[in-house]
Amino acid sequence: MLSFVPRPVIRVAAVALLVYAFLLPNLVQPYTIRVAATILVFTVFATGLNLILGFTGLLSFGHAAMFGAGAYISARLMLDTGMPLALVILVAVGGSAVFGLLVGLTSWRVGGDYLALITLGVGQIFYLYLNNANEVTGGATGLPGIPAGTFFGWDLSSIENVYLFILVATLVATGFAWLIGRSFLGRSFLAIREDEVIARAHGINVPLTKVVVFGIGSGIAGLAGVLQVLLLGFVGPATFTVDQSILVVEIVLIGGMATTFGPLLGSVLVIGSTEYLRSLADYRSMIFGALIVLILLWKPGGLVQILGIGDTRAGRFRSPFSLFRRTGSRPAAVEPVAEPPAPRAVPEEVRS
Asked: Which residues are 143's β-sheet partners?
């Protein structure tokens, strides 16, 4: 890894940025606060996919469905019941996790491209359901006027308080993913990503572990959906298209797979540039597509590897294109094998 930033500098900068993040509502305009909150929501969203894609190597194009499940479950509960927000979050996260477990069951028998296609289909079916189930989801118009409520007395009616709540939730989700990555379960994820046959040989139940990682990653995505509802006060199907699933894959790849801070760095670049570089919106897909190809070719650890920051011990950086690159030194020249000497002639007297 390219480590041109000394670790003491990284620690000081991280503390300074964290302090700045908590002071941000007092320093900037409401629009900037809303953009920062959106970046944090997508950080949580990408953190869930990072466990599935980055740690376990399972490509999912339906993660927006888990994101939407958490959003719609929380929206309906806040509109129709007087349930406390803390309980709403638990139910929404749990519902998204169960949804993810059901989708993860498909990985019991299939993987690779087939799993990616199945998750793509799940995402599209979920989007069509949101558009057509008018009585439950509000159809294409969505569900407006969702009350923010309070969280153990913490009033979330202002954008400043919502931002701070989302910031705390992001820290909790990132810390939880960090603990998972360094546990036996996280090492099992990495073992499956590297080689499923060897993982089985070491006693890892590969199919069950895949289902579990889908459940955990989907639960975290469901939390992001709840945060999105608190931020917007509205939920609609346009937020949970297949394009959103592809967007979060971009965030994970650009930020750095199987890293702690990759989802945050990827969200800052992708979401931040989307908000502040709207003049380049027509070229966005081309720019990020080229960036992903360059990262996969030379720096598969993403921005974390490029900047040399964060803890990247979670696994080796591997590029899908590494087989086409020549690495290492040239093999030593092989010395030609000397021919054995010809047998000497036997004297005449011996032959006789």
From this structure: 235
3-state secondary structure the chain: CCCCCCHHHHHHHHHHHHHHHHHHHHCCCHHHHHHHHHHHHHHHHHHHHHHHHHHCCCCCCCHHHHHHHHHHHHHHHHHHCCCCHHHHHHHHHHHHHHHHHHHHHHHHCCCHHHHHHHHHHHHHHHHHHHHHCHHHHCHHHCECCCCCCEECCEECCCHHHHHHHHHHHHHHHHHHHHHHHCCHHHHHHHHHHHCHHHHHHCCCCHHHHHHHHHHHHHHHHHHHHHHHHHHHCCECHHHHCHHHHHHHHHHHHHHCCCCCCHHHHHHHHHHHHHHHCHHHHHHHHHHHHHHHHHHHHHCCCHHHHHHCCCCCCCCCCCCCCHHHCCCCCCCCCCCCCCCCCCCCCCCHHHHC
Global confidence as pTM: 0.86
For the stretch 284-293, pLDDT in tens is 788 888 889 9
Domains of the chain, with CATH numbers? 7-320 (1.10.3470)
The per-residue pLDDT for range 336-345, each reduced to its tens digit, is 555 656 556 5
Residues 297 and 175 sit within 8 Å (Cβ to Cβ): no
